[in-house]
Amino acid sequence: MSILTRRISLIHTLSIYGNQTVKCFVNTMNATEILTFKTNFTIEEQEKILNTLNDSDSGELSRFHISKNRIKNLQNWKYKKGPFRTLNDVLEVEGLGEKVLEKICHNIITENKVDNNGNTVVSKRLKQLITPPIDGSMQKIGIHLASMGISWAKLYRDQNKVTDWDYEDFSSLPKKMLPADTFKLALKVLHKLPTADIYILEGNHTISPQNISQSASVSLYTQHLELSSMLIALINTSVQHNSVLQEVENNKMQQYMENKVFHLRAKVPARLFRTLVGTEKVAALTAVSQLVKSDEASDDFLLPCTPISIEDNLRHAFLAKSSANKELLGQALMLVVSFMDLCIYKNPTSISALSSNKAKS
């Protein structure tokens, strides 16, 4: 064994401590390049990083805001050389320089921190985002209610995949509706909603002082409250939409009711996707269009959230809609993506973006 080969072997067996500088020697055709990586991560944190990179599939790795090309390069390296033994090994992967690796490590370490009792520590920036508090489930639906209609998007945690995306148009409805008419509309929406573990609504917006004197604005606001309240009651009491009621009915158990409808704080999706100017929301088509194609061009993905995958028929149906209906569909998609990244995945990139946007507003 040559001196150079022995030195490479020795360096690769080193552990990384505290603020120690670690050198990785890469033998090329005519020269030896020295790669240096400085880290402040503890031994335990480094083990978590390596275990995550070694054991996670592509869908799980995308949660740490790693592009598809880099994920592919990571997997190719492991396929050829085996699991990563040190962070030095990760530096050898094509497209992963020091800054990129540092960011990936930080994203992995800051996800789902636990206290001494093994309980998940919720960041102060995440507190009170969702009402009531939630511990996490698998399938979600975001329901967005607007003056022009109601829309929903179903997102599976596995591969962050959208499998149902639709809306109900309100353009043909009368401006004033009796409670009985609103109830019929709520029933119609309920029958079209796909089933899920939980359902996410955006928190009710407060009516602005300048609109309080306008009877039309007050009437519309009241109708929205009536419709959302009826939907909450119907979803929670529907055997089809509330899995707990299915178990009660199938097993002849004692009647038991469990809430399945949660509220994400108002304007959180607009803040996360930067469609909030002052206190007013603006068109979100640019952000939504990037979300829709995020699984096709992940390296160009600039939004502060986990890229989604979407079935081709849903993508084509979206692209064929008018701008107004695209906007309506997009609001539901942004809602469920915001909920998953902030409250379930606890994506550090999303949390940081939401915090910085809040500070600016």
TrEMBL record:
Domain of life: Eukaryota
Protein name: Transcription elongation factor, mitochondrial
